[in-house]
């Protein structure tokens, strides 16, 4: 998993409440178990018209937000079914951070396991971030995980809370496999002792 330390980029404003995982990545994209290639399906029912052409009114199709790395979203983001494809699709598109006032628990946990930082802020802070994001490519946000800060283009700073364990995992790029591999010497030592004490196994 790629480390998350400091992220600077364009933030796309998505002023929709209760964005569920089916809206993030519709069911027809769930046939794959690969984590790549899902970016094209991200918000596909909003991004594309029935004929397959792009919907120019959707935020991620606008020139200023095509390379967005941050998503500023309204309340209860990631609700619905527990599909891990939702963070996969965000990550494949290039989104490394989602900011909202609240998240569905399963989506929130899945983000950390896939290298995405979900940040929960107060309603008044979200409105300020929406204002920043609506300025387009000329107004980039900086996310500093170590300092737990969101820095706006005008110099404003918003502090955020994060569980220390999850913070350590993101800073070091540790998913569940990475956490297990940290214990590799102890695991190998246990296996060697087991082989010596029970050679018949």
Notes on the structure:
This protein is of the alpha/beta class. It has a single domain (6-197), classed as Aconitase, domain 4 (Alpha-Beta Barrel). Helices cover 33% and strands 16% of the residues. The chain contains eight helices and seven strands; from the N terminus they run E-H-H-E-H-E-H-E-H-E-E-E-H-H-H. It has helices spanning 21-24, 44-47, 85-93, 105-113, 123-133, 164-172, 176-181, 184-197, and strands at 6-14, 70-73, 97-100, 117-120, 140-144, 149-151, 157-159. Strands 4-3-2-1-5-6-7 form a seven-stranded mixed sheet. Strand 2, helix 3 and strand 3 (97-100) form a beta-alpha-beta unit. The longest helix has 14 residues, at 184-197. The two termini are 35 Å apart. The model has no long low-confidence stretch (mean pLDDT 92).
Biggest sheet character: 7 strands, mixed
At CATH level 2, the architecture is Alpha-Beta Barrel
List the helices and strands in order: EHHEHEHEHEEEHHH
Unreliable stretches covering 5 or more consecutive residues? none
Q: Count the strands?
A: 7
Q: What's the CATH topology name? A: Aconitase, domain 4
Task: Report the span from N to C terminus.
Answer: 35 Å
Decide which structural class fits the backbone.
alpha/beta
Could you estimate the helical fraction of the residues in percent? 25-40%
Strand content: 15-25%
Shape: globular
Average per-residue pLDDT, rounded, comes to 92
Q: What count of structural domains?
A: 1
Alpha carbon gyration radius: 19 Å
């Amino acid at each position: 998993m790629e480390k998350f330390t400091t992220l600077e980029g364009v933030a796309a404003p998505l002023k929709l409440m209760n964005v569920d995982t089916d809206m993030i990545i519709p069911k027809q994209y769930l046939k794959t178990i690969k984590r790549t290639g899902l970016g094209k399906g991200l918000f596909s029912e909003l991004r594309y018209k029935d004929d397959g052409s792009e919907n120019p009114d959707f935020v991620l199709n606008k020139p200023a937000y095509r390379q967005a790395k941050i998503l500023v979203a309204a309340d209860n983001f990631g609700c619905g079914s527990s599909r891990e494809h939702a963070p996969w699709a965000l990550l494949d598109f290039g989104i490394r951070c989602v900011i909202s006032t609240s998240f569905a628990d399963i989506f929130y946990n899945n983000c950390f396991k896939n290298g995405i930082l979900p940040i929960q802020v107060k309603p008044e802070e979200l409105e300020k971030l929406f204002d920043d994001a609506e300025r387009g490519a000329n107004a980039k946000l900086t996310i500093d995980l170590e300092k737990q800060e969101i820095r706006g283009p005008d110099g404003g700073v918003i502090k955020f809370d994060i569980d220390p364990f999850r913070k350590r995992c993101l800073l070091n790029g540790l998913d569940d496999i990475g956490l297990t591999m940290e214990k590799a010497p102890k695991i190998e030592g246990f296996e060697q002792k087991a082989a010596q004490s029970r050679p018949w196994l």
